[in-house]
Fold each of these.
Amino acid sequence: MVLAVLLVGALVAAGYLWRTTAAWEDHAAQWESEARGYAEEVAALQAELDGVTAELVAAREQLDTATARITDLADEKAQLGDENVASQQYLDYQRRVSEAAGVVATALGQCTAAQSQLIGYLEDRDAYDPADLDRFAADVEALCDEANDANAQLQQELAR
Amino acid sequence: MRAPTRDPRRPSGLLAVLVTTFVATSCAAVPELPPPVPQDVVPSVAPPTLSAAGSDQLSPDGFDAVQRMAVRIRNVGCASLSTGSGFAVDEHTLITNRHVVADSESLQVSTYDGRDLDVSAASTAALADLAVVRTEDPLPSFPQIADDDPEEGDDVTVVGYPAGGRLTVTAGRVIGTTRDPLHENLGEVLVTDAPVEPGSSGSAALDDDGDVIGVVYAKTTDGRSLLVPQSTLREMLDDTSAFTELTPC
């Protein structure tokens, strides 16, 4: 009787264990299938990531090149601007010198004309009032002094 | 003599105990049936961000904030031409050196990407080699001014236009402080080993956080750079009477 009970119990236990084992095997198989699916997904995503990373590296290199080029262009533009300003200042200087030279030439011309006129007056000194001659001579001298001053300034400017 | 009688109940009791114990221990040791495999085991997490380190400092054109705040200043004098550097402190205000803007007929400001900005006004400080330039056009970027002066050994980054050339970022360390050998500034000035050149005057000196710790104004004969410290800059900016309007030559 006891042995029968034990036998039945053992059979029940064996049946339960067989069913449990089968269920766990099935369970493990499902997990493995699931894992393989995810592994394939991971592999695909990894490949995609590698591709995107390579694109990102290339894009960053292009960006670095572009920013370096922009910096170079900005520098070139600044240098051209400097040269332009320097040229403009040089042109302004040349213009001022030319204008000053014209003024000096005119003043010296007026000086020499006035001196010639004075010489003419002095050659016929008796025909003129001595006081007027002195006044005219003083005016000519002042005119020539101004011309000389202008010339000195021009020479000083040219010497800079 | 009588043979001992056997108690028929005794083995049954022992057996019951054994069976009970066996069943109890077996039930505890026997594995349970597996749970069903879930349909989806992917955890729901926030998608990763693509921000790389320092990308928050980047603008869409790829330049970082350090470069974007720097400007090149061309001082067109009545009979001279010089260049210097500067940096923005707000959308329409630049800081540079007084000697960068001195004796100017006009000031021309350009940005890191070569854009020209119109200048509306300029003023200079009497007690420090500092000047403020206002622009009509908005400036691309401006940093914060640091809360404290740097300590000896702190890292420093200088961004500017040495020798009037291309935008350059150099690095060094704070060596210490000294009295201004040029007597242009009241109080002490900072000494660093960050390389600078003529034309770097007015460059911003930044700490590791990108905050302004000083303004480059000179270079020593042994190749060190001198900075107006941020404390002096703050004092000048806080005192509206510290700056007087710059009159063209």
Amino acid sequence: MSQESSTQLKTTPFYNIHKELGAKLVPFAGWNMPIQYKGVIQEHLCVRNGVGIFDVSHMGEMDIRGKEAKKLLQKLVTNDIEKMSDHSILYTVMCYEGGGVVDDLLVHRFSEDHYFLCVNAGNSDKDFQWVQKIAAPYDVEVLDTSAETAQLAIQGKDAEPLLQRLCDVPLNDLRYYHFKKAKIHKNDCIISRTGYTGEDGFEIYTDSGLAGPLFQKILEEGKSFNIQPIGLAARDTLRLEMGYALYGNDITAKTSPLEAGLGWVVKLQKEDFIGKESLKNQKEAGLKRKLVGIKLLERGVPRPHYPVFADGQPVGELTSGTFSPSLNMGIGLCYVSLEHSQVGSRLSVGIRNQQVPAEIVKPPFVPTGVKK
Amino acid sequence: MEVPKDLRYTMEHEWVRVNGSKGVIGITHFAQDQLGDVVFVEMPAPDSQVTKENTMGVVESVKTVSDLYAPASGKVIAVNTDLETQPELVNSEPYGKGWIIEIELSDPKEMESLLTPEQYIEQCEKEH
């Protein structure tokens, strides 16, 4: 990476801390982000067994306020906004008219006329433009708050006892997919019981201008829990062990949420939303393919775009793939035609010049630790 | 970064330890650090021939996959079978227990074309 390109990358409020911690920093979605600190496997296991802290300030945030905020969101996303209560969070996708995915996101409801969205870093600008365009006829104000918002994820079974030491509100009654306003250390935060690891834990949103010392404070307080900073590489292996879809890999503008196994966030019975017609037609015509989990039965590491075969014939390609540190084996996600999508079916993955045997399994690949 | 003085190196970050007509081959400290956690090493079969600058295997880390290039030509006389169960030795001891193969050198003179430790350090600094 040349000096020139690195100066164009955005940095989070925790950049200097990452450098001091010896992180490997790489360009990711326009940001200079820590991909790993001590090593992806030990970071991964640290989250599975205890607690880790992630800088996820690259994620995009949007504030939506106004009389018609709920109405706009109901039009924009596929899941049902109507059922949300204050301080609840909803996972959803938003689609194009054709049914392709604009992004997957979290919708946080403060009140009927005030929500905030958390979207993928790489889609942040595109999403903001899309939401603004759709919002034009509605009585709402849409603000891109990404630049002034820092985000940390504290994930693992020890996340609650650790954060409780620094937080001025009780966390034991904060339920999965709900959030509170809280003071953590000296920072006014929104703390939500969400995450992308499959472990219990929290995501914290706070003013980026004041956020710097918070990371340090949590690390210090977390010493007695053997907390470690966790890079984006482990974030990816953690999410993939859960079978969570990643935008750009498993879901894109060209994929259907129904085929991606996200039918549970597509509420075809609700009022009009963008993409409803196309998705309804897809469902009525019958899905052609399905995103499935595979595990390799022999040694090797499956990776995105590797071909997948059934009886020697190509039937699809991997959209995600990695070595699973928890299972010590290769795992991945791939779209295959319905006839080959049965759990337990044998497939093979083309790794260089070999076809390595694999089996279809139902994600998550390892048991989840989230508190539902 | 460790660069032992008694080894010769390639631009692709392999090392060779010459002992008479034999050479032990591995990847460098710099290479293992760039790759991150190594989880799988694909080695050439014993008794097969490897050819200088041609691929002879693959190192897979969690993050990425990297070809192994033969630093010299010769017949494979030993492979490090410990790597089948402990590929992480490539990270922890790249110049020791993390060695990859040993070959009978076809032409010991090929060693002269490999990088000296000083040249290799210079090469790594350029890449960093």
Amino acid sequence: MTGTMFEKAWAEHVVKPLGGGEDLVWIDRHFTHDLSGPFSLKSLQEHGLALRRPDLTIAVVDHGVSTETGRSEASTPASEKLMPLYRDLTSQYGVRLFSIDDERQGIVHVVGPELGLCQPGAFIVCGDSHTCTQGGVGAIAWGIGSTEVVQVLATQTLIVLRPKTMLVRIDGATSPGVGAKDLILALIAKYGADGGSGHAIEYAGTAVEALSIEGRMTLCNLTVEFGARIGFVAPDEKTFDYLMDRPWSPRGEAWTAASAHWRWLRSDPGATYDKWIELDAGAVAPQISWGTSPAHTVAIDGVAPDPAEAPDAATAEAWRAALEYMALRPGARLAGLRVQNVFIGSCTNSRFEDLERAAEVVRGRRVAEGVRAWVVPGSQSVKRQAEAAGLRDVFVQAGFRWREPGCSMCVSMNGEKVPPGERCVSTSNRNFVGRQGPGARTHLASPETAAASAIEGRIADARSYADGSRHA
Amino acid sequence: MPEIAPLRRIVSKAVPLPLPNIDTDIITPMERIMDGKFVEFAFEALRFDADGAPRPGCALDDPAYRDAEILIAGANFGCGSSRETAVWAVKGLGFKAVISESFGDIFSSNCFRNGIVPVVLPAAAITALLDAAQSGETLTLDIERRVVEQEGGDRYGFEIPPLRRTALLEGLDDLQLSLRLADEITTFESRDRAERPWAQGVAMESERPLGTARKPE
């Protein structure tokens, strides 16, 4: 059989074909977080249903929890309300819970791969759209709604319309100062926020192969911002090296069998996809978003567009609304805009490598006056690793706040927000209206760009820091 | 779990909302999810200005569209977060169908699970239907025949997976459907445990204390 990895993985998860392209599929792992988890478990209980496989659901705490040093489970109103219910229900149902007192706590999509809970070809779901992040280790992972969560809890299956397949080839060498975040933002800017709708995306090409596993997770993270639920990179030697000896990774003979199977899962030469698109990595500059959709993104030296030049009336109206919300005039340069907030964190860019890249820019410099700059590590493990490597000191000495792991300023349900009318250069994934708080103006960027912007107090091009000449 | 009423045919005016990329943070902002007012303040940024005053001309609040059960939206409607509150809010406003050129995949899936029909039509059809909606036409959306019809008789066929169509017509939910397949699930589970032991059996029983693992640090 000649097939794509997605087709092979799909075939081995079909419990029963239901006709018309829909199948009942087996789910290997289900993650819950402190926003979706408590209500879903409660709903299960109210329906008098058993949790079919408590061992395959893992509960984490990230969305509602405070990231303030010295926090407790009652530090935010959301968390104070949800945590007692979450603790009670996970305990009743026998589900593992990694709360803030656990050394494994962190953002769900950071924790899953680092604990080896995610495997190539595994079907993984979570009531969170950025579950696709886990495609960085080759997992077929996607976000689901709360009704689907209850079904997974009760049956360990879902009824899914099999998406079409899409190959996104990114070839070429990236320029210095350009990373995975820039590649995926450039892809979305080029093909639109619905460029991947209805498809499961396999990312391939020399630029993708060159990325570390952490970089691949960043790439896959914004798949949902590209309109698709699922995006993954087929496993290679880097993947196996990353997964080997993780706490839940298979060992010994099980590892040998598993890794042989994962190799077999890779798309066969000559496999065909429903759609195939390309991006030239060499042509990508650092990216910055100007508007209220991740597709509203330009190169760091670019300008906000003019609605008069929009391709159609609806787009012109969307651009006008976005420019108004972002307080930008058509043709305004992005670089140089004053910023009041810088957020380095979220499931997009809060892993060790992200912090390392940002720290390279920050080292020996100071955060500009009037800028509130935060680093929120993605997990306790990332935090420990970064502290051991001295990165905490680099950030703190520069004037950054170094915080506890969680979603923080990416989702404004934990009290950590950007004040109305202020700008934030954020390494997160959504610049939607109100996403970082009512009236907040978000500019999406890479960790390097965020770090350089914190230093200058303006949206800045981190490439001028690469050789250490500037302000050094 | 949502209660799902059988849905066969909708005859109604349609609210035009041509803006592309209306995300689920716009439909139900997190602030409104937390304070429980996500239906009342659905599409808040489109309906109200920063001071909370109603935006004049917003079709969602136009009395001409009172009781409309169809929403015609710009491309990529419901993109973004998986929050099902977005569908509950659309349903709470009285809509039973949303027609767009494309949907966020999770939103679309959530629609079906709540008895709302997401209809995908090509750009030309959307343009015609937006015009019809703006001039106050009554549209007929027939799920059984999979067709949207204008007053003048212009009609647009759409695709919908057969199982989804049956579920809408009969008001079935996925949980009922899959609980009926419990035997098949059990058979699959035991076979899969043997074939991919690392995925369910061994892996989940082999938890090691974090301190003894090589990684993470």
